[in-house]
Amino acid sequence: MSHIDKFLRKGISSLKAYIPGKPIEDVQAELGLSDVAKLASNETPIGPSPMAVEAAHRELAKINLYPEGPATVLRNKMARRLSIEPEMITFSNGADNCLTLVSNAFIDEGDEVVMAEPTFSCYQTLTVIMGGRPVQVKLRNLTHDLDAMLAAVTKKTKLVFVCNPNNPTGTIVKRSDLERFISRLPGHVLLVLDEAYFEFASDHDYPDSVEYIKKGMNVIGLRTFSKIYGIAGLRIGYALGSSEFIGALNKVREPFPVSRIAQAAALAALDDDDYRAAVLKNNEEGKAYLMGEFERMGLPFAPSQTNFIFVDLKMDCRQAFDSILRKGIIIRPGHIWNSPTCARVTIGTMDQNRKFIRALEECRG
Ligand SMILES: *Cc1c(COP(=O)(O)O)cnc(C)c1O
After folding, report:
1. Largest CB tally within 10 Å, which of 34, 79, 269, 280?
2. Is ligand 1 within 6 A of the CB of residue 194?
3. What is the pTM of this model?
4. Best of 102, 103, 226 to mutate for ligand 1, by most ligand atoms within 8 A of CB?
């Protein structure tokens, strides 16, 4: 037993710290490049919403005051948009922090938590932190295998995470499949639908957590301002559910989890329809281009309903990562998801996409 293990709570020593996408600043310093594009963390490539930036500036004059704890103004506005009660929403410091609230409120020692593999890595980490047991069910055809996940549910199962669309593959589970799954879930299981990419999903069979929440099902939905709303740097996301489930999250929440600046920017971003339309347009154009290029190069990829594509580069992903990095493009190598020839590539601006494809072609020789 190492020195630190004597101090740690059970299970923590086996954990590995989250590996984020490589920061632009690191790459600039290490390689002496000035022009670096990060296609590694699914941020919006066209800059933030101008309306959000302006609102954030205005709010600066008030930062001597604590923010509103429950983000009341924003919560009321979101509730009206979704036609639900404000008590059915809680805002926190990113959807990541909403996941922490979910695990703090619901995962007891010994609870089993069913999730896909690969999926968003926080589900596993948070489960282990709480002393729960992650039950990982392999994807089938790069999407959630709901039948196998249902078969993995036992008396000890407390939560099921379904990341829809799934990160890192970008695939969705369809409404009919999800509804069949929900109808068969036993009453002691809470389904958490992580919808971080909700606004990017255009498939008409894509389900919406709010429908199930309105029907009183044991469902929590998670969404964020980091992806389509373009304010990842401010850290704001939210959880949706019955007032009972959301009330439980509020019990374990910190008093002031969302800064004034984040609340003001989110409020403004909600009204910036032009910005969201521009993000979607850039994304559709870039997605079509990248898919066409991957097809031309004979590289298989998952059908994406998001702002990223999971592609098989048919070469060692770390070698590809290094070589593409030297051209000033950061991607996410697949070995972190046990897919050593794959990569997750955020759809960038068309300039960035073309630069990425050129770099990829050069390293494939
Ligand atoms: C980006 C992402 C999040 C985290 O969003 P934040 O609001 O930035 O914390 C959560 N879940 C998934 C699947 C994501 O891709």
Report:
1. 269
2. yes
3. 0.96
4. 226
